[in-house]
Amino acid sequence: MVNVNIGLIEFNSELYIESVALRQDVLRTPLGLKFTKENMTNDANEMHIAATDGDQLIGVLLLRPLTNHTVKMRQVAVSEAYQGKGVGKQLVAFCESLCTSMGFKQIELNAREVALQFYLSQSYEQIGEQFLEIGIPHFKMIKNL
Ligand SMILES: CC(C)(COP(=O)(O)OP(=O)(O)OC[C@H]1O[C@@H](n2cnc3c(N)ncnc32)[C@H](O)[C@@H]1OP(=O)(O)O)[C@@H](O)C(=O)NCCC(=O)NCCS
Q1: 28 DSSP 8-state letter
Q2: CB-ligand 1 contact for 84 (6 Å cutoff)
Q3: Predicted model pTM
Q4: Residue 130's pLDDT is what?
């Protein structure tokens, strides 16, 4: 397991700017897509959580409060060299503790089909049928905190 530090980062900070590049590399470039300004308009209103190894950014995750009860987890990305080493699991666990401490009761997310097993292993439940988002299959998942 990697010696990873996880914490909230400020919107528009240096780490935030690095995290946008990581999101592009891990979540968009493999699909031949680019983030547009419109994609980023909500970033200022979301919580940004980063995983670092020393001064290197290795993972990112965004949380968007939908109601006082529910938070949407999105843009979960671990840099390729660090995938499969427990970083994603620690990022998700950190966010669950954070959301619980803030009084939220549920996390929801749209999981890519390739990440379904990852979220199932972290006790997220698949809800409903497969649907397309950014052109690839996704499943809605929830976890009660
Ligand atoms: C999906 C992702 C966030 C998982 O993070 P990770 O650091 O690689 O995963 P972890 O090493 O923490 O794995 C945690 C558990 O999930 C399992 N797992 C992780 N990725 C998996 C996959 N693609 N398929 C099956 N199981 C997987 C691991 O085996 C591990 O199980 P264990 O706890 O029993 O050992 C990361 O691989 C990633 O960024 N992938 C590319 C982008 C992506 O698909 N993001 C999700 C968008 S919804």
Answers
A1: I
A2: yes
A3: 0.95
A4: 96
